[in-house]
Amino acid sequence: MPNIQLGNTCFDYIQQKQKRKTITIALKNAGQILIKTPHNISAKEACDILQRYADWIKEKNQAYEKLSQQAPINDNYILYRGRKINISRIFSPTYPAVQLIDDHINIYYPSSLLLPLAEIFLPWYKMQARLYLTERTIFWAEKLQVNPANISVKDQKSRWGSCSSLKNLNYNWRIMMAPDNIIDYLIVHELSHLKEMNHSVKFWSIVAQYDPSYKKHRLWLKHNGDLLLHVLRN
């Protein structure tokens, strides 16, 4: 990947040539620029454009770096069921493994194999989601007296869950970063669709029956959801 020096900072950048008339610049991650240009814009011209917008890019990059320090998953801790779990790295000859013990999570891996956080935690979160969400869905399904046909864990970009007309429930694994009461709200929400396949007054009355604080939990997801939905994305 080519790079460009903007002030005191070196950025990686990708130029995507497309059938378009305008030029757009965006930061994919801290230190990584995506510039979309028409086909007739050369690499040198793209670099000149990036230099022209250097101040704006550096400002956005600082915002990304600040956000990454507050991210639910970083080099120091992860967020799991609403709790910050500190990370401990243990060099071991075995293949990378993850073990949760109280308020610590141990990562075991050979000293020569320093994997990105996504490769370590993505499969672990999905496994925890399958186990925990299935357990809690069975619990709440008995209370609501409904029978979901299938429970799936997915990597969705903008949705926390869904319920199909075939009674299949889908959950976004990232809900495992939320507190337990938020997770239960999501499960009750989706199971309530097995009784009422809409968001009518009747539907919300069903949700309220099993989660009287659903408005507060729904608001929590609205305020915190965007940050969680961007975790461990390429």
Automatic annotation (TrEMBL):
Residues 21-224 form the YgjP-like metallopeptidase domain. InterPro entries: UTP_pyrophosphatase-like (IPR053136), YgjP-like_metallopeptidase (IPR002725). CDD domains: M48_yhfN_like (cd07344). Coiled coil: none annotated. It holds the Pfam family YgjP-like. It comes from the Bacteria. This is YgjP-like metallopeptidase domain-containing protein.
